[in-house]
Amino acid sequence: MARLIETLVWWVALCGLWLLTLSTFPIPELVAAVAVALPCAAAATVARRAVGASWRVRPGWARWLPPLPAAVLADTARVLTAVLRRPVVRAERGRLLRVAPHPESDARYAATQRALAVIALSLPPGSVVVGADPDRDPDPGRDRDELLLHVLADGPPRMNEVIER
Predict the structure, then answer these.
(1) What is the pLDDT of residues 52-83, one digit of tens each?
(2) By C-alpha distance, which of 126, 121, 112, 123 is closest to 161?
(3) Which of 28, 29, 130, 144 could bond to 103 as cystine, CB 3.0-4.6 Å?
(4) What's the rounded Cα separation, in Å, for the pair 66 and 156?
(5) Which residues neighbour 78 within 8 Å (Cβ) at sequence distance 6 or greater?
(6) Would you tell me how many other CB atoms lie within 10 Å of the CB of residue 103?
(7) Around Cβ 99, how many Cβ atoms within 10 Å?
(8) Model confidence over 122-146: pLDDT tens digits?
(9) How many CB atoms lie within 10 A of CB 101?
């Protein structure tokens, strides 16, 4: 029963993702979304169980969601402004930041937190996570994982500050 529910959740999520890419909803597209999402959902369920993965989410991480749309819109405007204002020949270099979410003692929560932080930090077009290696610890005194973030367009709202709170 748990596999069926998981497959159903994947199916709904994948259908929703397909529909988000549409500007109109013709019948053939709706049929394709329903038909193609089902085998993909079954494959996702089998694959997740094969690797033994599970996501444990803390409700407090939902605080990352409200500033995300504003960060995406603001970064989009900053990146487009930078492209239109400067010649293509002169590329922006950006800067690298270390982002350290609050430490998690449970490895399952830590892996989920890291994955969701990478997604939240990389969604705005002015930044991308370029490093996230929890096994490599250059500072033995450090007690939490760090993500390496390349920031091209910087300005509020800053998702790295939201993640670190």
Answers:
(1) 777 778 888 888 888 989 888 998 888 888 77
(2) 121
(3) 144
(4) 13
(5) 126, 153, 154, 155
(6) 12
(7) 23
(8) 888 888 888 876 655 544 444 457 8
(9) 22
